[in-house]
Design goal:
Elements lengths: L16 H12 L4 H5 L5 E9 L9 E17 L2 E10 L2 E7 L3 H7 L5 E7 L1 E3 L2 E5 L2 E4 L12 E3 L4 H5 L4 H15 L9 H7 L4 H9 L4 H33 L10 H10 L6 H14 L6 E6 L5 H14 L3 E5 L3 H14 L7 E4 L5 H12 L5 E4 L13 E7 L6 H8 L7 E6 L5 H7 L4 E5 L10 E6 L3 H13 L3 E5 L7 H18 L5 E4 L5 H12 L5 E4 L12 E6 L7 H8 L10 E6 L5 H12 L3 H12 L1 H4 L19 H17 L9 H13 L2 H4 L2
Parallel strand pairs: 1-2, 4-7, 10-15, 10-16, 11-13, 11-14, 12-13, 14-15, 17-22, 18-20, 18-21, 19-20, 21-22
Antiparallel strand pairs: 1-9, 2-3, 2-5, 3-4, 5-8, 6-7
This protein binds adenosine-5'-diphosphate and magnesium ion (MG).
Magnesium ion (MG) binds next to helix 11.
Family: Belongs to the helicase family. RecG subfamily.
InterPro entries: ATP-dep_DNA_helicase_RecG, DEAD/DEAH_box_helicase_dom, Helicase_ATP-bd, Helicase_C-like, NA-bd_OB-fold, P-loop_NTPase, RecG/Mfd, RecG_dom3_C
Keywords: ATP-binding, DNA damage, DNA recombination, DNA repair, DNA-binding, Helicase, Hydrolase, Isomerase, Nucleotide-binding
C-alpha cells in the first residue's frame, strides 16, 4: 500500500463529508486517515461468547460469564459499605462488587443458582472482580444473535448531539479499512517482532478496531502499546546521543589537589558504595569531552551533598569554578555552612549569594567571581542574575530540581562561551522508568543506599483521640534531649483555615508544654522572622518546631527525632515522605507520628499504610504513582504529562521497560539506523518525528 494514502484528509473518506470532518477535527483531533486509524477504542463489549473465569484477560473488554454466587458478604468502609459476592464457575473464582443497591441485591440474588453476568473486569490482588455486573439467571437468558465484540470509542457531548454515535465511528472505521484494504506495512523490524512475539501491525490495527477474540485483542493492544512506547524511547535516546555529540563540554581529566587531598585526609566518613558509584559516573562524564547533564536522585539523607562537593572539587582541580543553587535561602545557607565545614582545612574559597546579601557583599562577590578568587559560589535564584558573571564556570549543581525549570537550567549555560557541566539533584524519588521517559535528556544516577548506622524511622498512625498519649511520648523524648517537629498542612485554597488550625495547634501545644521552648514557622511570616525561628531550632534553643510545610525541603537538624504530622490524611505521599525525612538524621531512634481523624478515604488509608510499612522512597513513589498518575507526582498540574494514544505509562510500566531496552539494543548496534534490516525503523522514526516531536508528548 502506498503509505501516503494515510495522509489523506479525513474529508475524503466515504461517509464522512465536510460536516463530520469538521467535527472529527475539532472534537477528536482527527485530520487524516492516519489519525483515524490511530483513534483507539477505550473499551469493548463482548457478548460473542461466554468466558470461563480462568480465560479472563487483563483487557478493558466487557465480557459475559456463567457461574454461581456461593457467598455474599458486606465489607465495611469509611465511605459506606461494599457488597462482595464470591462468584465461581468450574474453572475458578472471582468477585462481584456493589457499592449501591445492597438491599435489593441481598433480597433478590439467589445463592448457588446459575447466572449470566456481564461487565468489565478488574484485576486486583491476584483476582478478577467485576463491579456492578449486569446479571440474568441463565434460564431467563434468551440466546440472541450476538455478532461481534463491540468497540466503544471515546466521544464528546457535541459528537453525540450531532449524531456521530459510536455506530457511526464504527462504520467510518470499516470504510477506512475497506479503502486501504487494511494493508498496513509493518513499523517494527522482524527481529523485534520475533523477540517479543508481536503480531504484525496490520493484524494489530484490525484487531484493535474489530477484535475477533479476547486473545487477539490482548495481542493487538500489546503490540500497539509497545510500538508507541518504543518510538518515544527511540526519540529520547537519539536526542540524548545527538546532544552528547553536538554539545562539547570542558574536559576535566585532572584529579588533583582538591579532590585527592579531601578524599585522603578530610573525608569525615567512609563513602557508601552507592556514593562511590555515582561519583565514578560523574567523573566519567566530566572527562568525556561532552557536556554532562545528569540527574542525581537520592532519598532524603542519602548523602547527596558530599557527592556534590567532590564533583565540584574535580572542577576546581581542572582550573574551573563551580556553583550550587538551592531553591530557598534557608537551604542555601545550610549548604553553605555544611560545605564550609567540610572544606575547613583546605583553603577553598566558598561564598554565599542570596536575595538578602547586602549590596557591598554583592559587589565584592561579583568582583571576586570575575577575577577567579571565588572557587565555589552557593546561592539561590540570585545566581541567575545577569550581573553574576563567572571567570570560568565549569560545573553548576542544582538542588531540588523540580523547583527549577528547563529554562533556568539553560540560563546557567549562557554564563559561559561553552556550557558548564550540569548536575541536578533531587530527593523526589521518581520511579526510574518514569524518570527516563520524562527526563530523557538527562542521564540518571541513583544513590539507593543510606549511610550505615541509620536506624530506620519508626512510623505510626494515631487518631486524634489518642492525642494525650502522643503528647506524653513527645514529653519523654524532649526529656531525653531530643527535638520535635509538629507540622500542619497548608493548602492554598483554604490558607486562612490552615492558619487558624496552626495557631490553635500552637496554643494547645504551648499549654501542654509550658516549660518547653517552641519555635513557630509559617508562610505568612517575614523571611527574616522565619529564619530567626528556624535558627533557634537549629541551635537547639527551642525543642519544638511548630510549622507548616515550609520546612519540607532539606532542613537538617540531626538532633530532631520526632516528626508529628497533623491531619496527615491531607498530605500526598511524596510530601509525607519528604517531611518524615527531616528526622532520622542522627544516631538516635526517630519516630514519625501520623495524626488523623477517624474519617478516612480509601486512598488516605492506603497512603497512611504505605508510610507505616516502608521507608523506601522509591517504593512510596510507585504507590503514589498508582494512586495519582504521573502528572501529579511531579508536584505540578501536568496531569497527562505524556499524551499517549494507547499505552498507559502507569499500567504499562513493564512494556515501557521492554520498549526502552529494545530501543537501546537497536541503537547500540546501529546508532544511525543505517543497517538494511532497520530501514523500517528509520522510515517510521522519520515519520514519527515529523508529526510528533517528543515535546508534543511532554506538555
Ligand atoms: P541529602 O541526600 O538528603 O542531601 P545529606 O547530603 O544532607 O543528604 O546527608 C545527610 C547526612 O548524612 C549528613 O549529615 C551527611 O554528613 C551524612 N552522610 C552522608 N554520607 C555519609 C556516609 N557515607 N557515611 C556517614 N554519613 C554520611
Ligand atoms: Mg540535601
Amino acid at each position: 500500500m502506498n503509505p501516503n494514502i494515510l495522509q489523506t484528509p479525513i474529508d475524503y473518506l466515504k461517509g464522512v463529508g465536510p460536516g463530520r470532518a469538521g467535527l472529527l477535527r475539532k472534537e477528536l483531533g482527527i485530520h487524516t486517515y492516519q489519525d483515524l486509524l490511530n483513534f483507539f477504542p477505550n473499551r469493548y463489549l463482548d457478548k460473542t461468547r461466554f468466558y470461563k473465569i480462568n480465560e479472563l484477560q487483563r483487557t478493558s473488554a466487557e465480557v459475559q460469564i456463567v457461574g454461581k454466587i456461593t457467598h455474599i458478604k458486606t465489607v465495611e468502609q469509611k465511605r459506606g459499605k461494599r457488597l462482595v459476592a464470591d462468584f465461581v464457575d468450574d474453572t475458578g473464582k472471582m468477585e462481584l462488587v456493589w457499592f449501591r443497591g445492597h438491599k435489593w441485591i441481598r433480597e433478590n440474588l439467589k445463592l448457588n443458582t446459575p447466572y449470566v453476568i456481564f461487565g468489565k473486569t478488574n484485576w486486583f490482588n491476584g483476582m478478577f472482580s467485576m463491579p456492578h455486573p449486569e446479571m440474568e439467571p441463565v434460564e431467563e437468558y434468551k440466546k440472541q444473535l450476538r455478532t461481534a465484540m463491540q468497540p466503544v470509542y471515546p466521544s464528546t457531548e457535541l459528537l453525540a448531539k450531532k449524531g456521530v454515535s459510536n455506530r457511526v465511528v464504527n462504520k467510518i472505521m470499516q470504510q477506512l479499512f475497506l479503502e486501504t484494504k487494511g494493508r498496513f506495512y509493518d513499523t517494527l523490524t522482524e527481529e523485534i517482532r520475533e523477540k517479543l512475539k508481536l503480531i504484525p501491525k496490520a493484524e494489530a490495527l484490525f484487531n484493535v478496531h474489530f477484535p475477533k477474540s479476547q486473545e487477539l485483542l490482548a495481542k493487538a493492544q500489546f503490540r500497539l502499546k509497545f510500538e508507541e512506547l518504543f518510538y518515544i524511547q527511540l526519540q529520547l535516546l537519539i536526542k540524548n546521543m545527538l546532544q552528547k555529540k553536538r554539545i562539547k563540554g570542558y574536559v576535566f581529566d585532572q584529579i588533583g589537589e582538591n579532590f585527592g587531598r579531601f578524599y585522603k585526609d578530610h573525608l569525615p566518613f567512609e563513602l557508601t558504595n552507592a556514593q562511590k558509584r555515582v561519583i565514578k559516573e560523574i567523573r566519567s562524564d566530566l572527562g568525556s569531552g561532552a557536556q554532562m547533564n545528569r540527574l542525581l536522585q537520592g532519598d532524603v539523607g542519602s548523602g547527596k551533598t558530599i557527592v556534590a562537593l567532590m564533583s565540584m572539587f574535580i572542577a576546581l582541580d581542572n582550573g574551573f569554578q563551580a556553583c550550587l543553587m538551592a531553591p530557598t535561602e534557608i537551604l542555601a545557607i545550610q549548604h553553605y555552612n555544611g560545605l564550609v565545614e567540610f572544606c575547613q582545612n583546605l583553603g577553598t574559597s566558598i561564598y554565599l549569594l542570596t536575595g538578602s546579601s547586602k549590596t557591598s557583599e554583592r559587589r565584592e562577590i561579583h568582583e571576586k567571581l570575575e577575577n577567579g578568587e571565588i572557587d565555589i559560589l552557593i546561592g539561590t535564584h540570585a545566581l541567575l542574575e545577569d550581573k553574576v558573571q563567572f571567570k570560568n564556570l565549569g560545573l553548576a549543581i542544582i538542588d531540588e530540581q523540580h523547583r527549577f525549570g528547563v529554562a533556568q537550567r539553560a540560563k546557567l549555560w549562557k554564563k559561559n562561551h561553552m556550557p558548564p557541566h550540569i548536575l541536578v539533584m533531587t530527593a523526589t524519588p521518581i520511579p526510574r522508568t518514569l524518570a527516563m521517559s520524562l527526563y530523557g535528556d538527562l542521564d540518571i544516577s541513583v544513590i539507593d543506599e543510606l549511610p550505615p548506622g541509620r536506624k530506620p524511622i519508626k512510623t505510626v498512625h494515631r487518631y486524634d483521640s489518642n492525642r494525650l498519649k502522643v503528647f506524653r511520648f513527645i514529653k519523654e523524648e524532649i526529656e531525653k534531649g531530643r527535638q520535635v517537629y509538629i507540622v500542619y498542612p497548608l493548602i492554598q485554597e483554604s490558607e486562612k483555615m490552615d492558619y487558624k488550625d496552626l495557631m490553635d495547634g500552637y496554643e494547645s501545644i504551648a499549654r501542654e508544654f509550658p516549660i518547653t521552648q517552641i519555635s513557630i514557622v509559617h508562610g505568612q511570616m517575614k523571611p527574616a522572622d522565619k529564619d530567626y525561628e528556624m535558627d533557634r531550632f537549629v541551635r537547639a534553643e527551642t525543642q519544638i518546631m511548630v510549622a507548616t510545610t515550609v520546612i519540607e525541603v532539606g532542613v537538617n537538624v540531626p538532633n530532631a527525632s520526632v516528626m508529628v504530622i497533623e491531619s496527615a490524611e491531607r498530605f500526598g505521599l511524596s510530601q509525607l515522605h519528604q517531611l518524615r525525612g527531616r528526622v532520622g538524621r542522627g544516631a538516635e531512634q526517630s519516630f514519625c507520628i501520623l495524626m488523623t481523624g477517624h474519617k478516612l478515604s480509601n486512598d488516605s488509608k492506603t497512603r497512611l499504610q504505605t508510610m507505616v510499612q516502608t521507608n523506601d522512597g522509591f517504593e512510596i513513589a510507585e504507590v503514589d504513582l498508582k494512586l495519582r498518575g504521573p502528572g501529579d507526582l511531579m508536584g505540578t498540574q501536568q496531569s497527562g504529562v505524556l499524551n499517549l494514544k494507547i499505552a498507559d505509562i502507569v499500567k504499562d510500566n513493564e512494556i515501557l521497560k521492554a520498549a526502552r531496552y529494545h530501543a537501546m539494543q537497536v541503537l547500540k548496534e546501529d546508532p544511525d539506523l543505517a543497517l538494511e534490516k532497520n530501514k523500517v525503523l528509520k522510515y517510521t522514526y522519520s515519520q514519527v518525528i515529523k508529526h510528533k516531536n517528543i515535546w508534543n508528548y511532554i506538555s
